Please model this.
Amino acid sequence: QVQLVESGGGLVQAGGSLRLSCAASGRTFSRYIMGWFRQAPGKEREFVAAKDWSGGGTYYADSVKGRFTISRDNAKNTVYLQMNSLKPEDTAVYYCAAAKYSWSQYDYWGQGTQVTVSS
Model:
């Protein structure tokens, strides 16, 4: 069982930056694929970024490439999402997720943290 707790959301002006953190419980955190997703009001949840346990495999949605960076610190059981050059369309609830076996199926989810980008 893995529990995920996000933090770091908030209100920021367009062009600004935020860093989200996701603290995970569980001794096997380092073996999970960790991902970030987001859901804007009235829209479906969408993939943002993911990183495998070794850090070698990293994927981003086209909409955030070059602006967002996912990283993880297995010693601290924490995954981060550095978000730069934020745009109003980045406004959403951001969720951290953990996948044990597959990049496309996530087994555990956090409660989400709100990110609001003002124009």
Notes: The first strand starts at residue 4 and ends at 7. The mean pLDDT is 93. Residues 73 and 79 are 6 Å apart (CA to CA). The radius of gyration is 13 Å.
